[in-house]
Design a protein that fits this description.
The chain has ten helices and eight strands. By secondary structure, the protein is an alpha/beta fold. It has an eight-stranded parallel barrel, surrounded by five helices. Strand 4, helix 5 and strand 5 form a beta-alpha-beta unit.
Length: 291
């Protein structure tokens, strides 16, 4: 038995124990697949044109960047008015770093995150995506890094809720981040912060590298999961390689997931053709993910 197989069995066994002792483990029938996309992936000469195509293709959410968001609130509200498309998550865009040995960098990050959270709340966003630390940043000892992060998340989570939104912590893969890579670890941090504004997300691309089971990863995230990024094994549109999504979708159904699943990926070929094909593929995978 390989180490990966051993970890998979252990992870699924742990998930099964959790399922046996929690109502979250019961079969859920109210989960829904709400497809979203990052703004830059959709073709179009204007925001209005992009949104019209999203509606036509059955894409319900728009994920936008956080940089300069306060200056786009009016534009975004106007473009989305009288459409079925909603703002899903806000992707980063802040300055500084929450995990840093320099308090000035941490303070800069908190201040700029709060500015984005105000705009995110005005737009009715699912939450603000943030990565605690990247590989290019100077690492801290793990226990210290975790404490530094949690201490700040208490304040930021409270601020997020006061704005009508939440924080979405994102685990990355080992090639991009030194601190947080597994959904279970992100869930443990959310648990320790113990605030409705401290939540998390998962990304199928990073999960393909780090997780032993997509289903097990989402089960470990449970109630803290409020956003998902969609990408194939090669970080292209779902359906553009052999990446299967049914295992992960099965996990989302089991936790009764109702938030957005958003394209964060490259596109091979004509976007006008390939994006609607990917939407169709994902709906087929969702249908196949029986529980």
């Amino acid at each position: 038995m390989t180490r990966r197989e051993f970890l998979m069995i252990g992870g699924l066994a742990g998930a099964a124990l959790t399922m046996g002792s929690s109502s979250e483990g019961k079969k859920q029938t109210d989960a829904v697949l709400r497809i979203s996309s990052q703004e830059g992936i959709i073709p179009g000469a204007s925001l209005e044109e992009k949104i019209a195509k999203m509606e036509k293709w059955g894409i319900e959410g728009l994920e936008v960047g956080g940089r300069g968001l306060k200056d786009r609130v009016k534009e975004l509200k106007s473009a989305l008015a009288n459409t079925n498309v909603k703002i899903s998550a806000i992707c980063a865009g802040f300055e500084g770093a929450l995990i840093s040995e320099e308090e000035s960098e941490r303070e800069k990050c908190r201040r700029s995150m709060k500015e984005i959270l105000i705009a995110a709340g005005e737009l009715g966003s699912t939450g603000l995506i943030f990565v605690p630390a990247f590989n290019h940043q100077k690492p801290l000892p793990f226990v210290e890094a975790r404490k530094v992060l949690i201490d700040q998340l208490h304040e930021l989570a409270e601020y997020a809720v006061s704005c009508g939104t939440r924080l979405l912590m994102e685990p990355l893969n080992r090639n991009e981040a030194w601190f947080l890579r597994l959904l279970a670890d992100a869930a443990a941090i959310c648990r320790d912060v113990d605030h409705p504004g401290a939540c998390m997300m998962g990304d199928f691309y990073h999960m393909c590298i780090e997780e032993t089971s997509d289903m097990g990863a989402f089960l470990s995230a449970g109630k803290y999961l409020h956003h998902v990024h969609l990408a194939s094994r090669t970080r292209k549109l779902p359906g553009q390689d052999d990446r299967d999504f049914t295992d992960g979708f099965r996990g989302l159904k089991m936790i009764g997931y109702k938030d957005f699943c958003s394209f964060e990926c490259g596109v091979l070929g004509d976007r006008e053709v390939e994006i609607p094909k990917s939407v169709k593929f994902l709906r087929e995978q969702w249908s196949k993910a029986t529980i």
